[in-house]
């Protein structure tokens, strides 16, 4: 029996990514694979799903994982096709794992890391993360990705997304040119330029993935539910710098439209 060709994102989903700054892919990887990932992470943090009395911190972080379950989850045929559709065919590096993992637990304490922000793409060798940078070409980052490794409902600390905020950030980055702006510069007004954006919550079943524009403004929030939330937030890395000889990808189309440039 011949293989069934993976359908990938629909034209409407691609357009939603351009307009809104993100697209949700359900069943991007299996629930069984998500469970295997959670089991490894539980072991890494020395806690147990059966001992909630030991969940004493609102968030526990794991830097990165490159074992087979995480590599497989990041490289399913559906996701690889979606990477091509959004970042440009062959213009990205296959993920060698997943990370980082902010594992959030039910807690009355503030997590301390729930401010609005954009993930910076280069200059990360600087010890002061507020000096990390991004530029209008999104050098160093093809996509921001949110991998749901557990079921995430509205009370389970889903990532908050400011819908359409990527366009505002693109316009703000344009005057800084190739050198880009630092996180300190972009955050100087506490992201006030995007405060009127509609807020979307990154909820879904384990195995869902949100593929996001690199300039999307987003934030964590406290966990008000009952079960820990497991999620990975890796970048998709580009193979090289922007090549004007190639057709623009949806990531680039969104930037160009926001900046009033011809697509």
Write structural notes for this entry.
The protein has one domain (12-237): q2cbj1_9rhob like domain (Jelly Rolls). Helix 1 (11-20) packs across helix 7 (250-258). The strands form 4 sheets. Strands 1, 5, 9, 11 and 12 form a 5-stranded antiparallel β-sheet that branches. A 3-stranded antiparallel β-sheet has the order 8-6-10, with no helix packed on it. Mean pLDDT is 95; it is low at 1-5. With 263 residues, the chain is an alpha+beta fold. The protein contains 7 helices and 12 strands. The termini are far apart. The chain is globular and about 55 Å long. Helices cover 25% and strands 17% of the residues.
Structural class assignment = alpha+beta
- The domain count comes to 1
How many whole angstroms does the radius of gyration measure?
Answer: 18 Å
End-to-end separation in angstroms reads: 42 Å
Return the string of H and E elements: HEHEHHEEEEHEHEEEEEH
- Largest sheet at a glance? 5 strands, antiparallel
Shape descriptor: globular
Report the mean per-residue pLDDT as an integer.
95
Proportion in helices: 10-25%
CATH topology name: Jelly Rolls
- How many distinct helices? 7
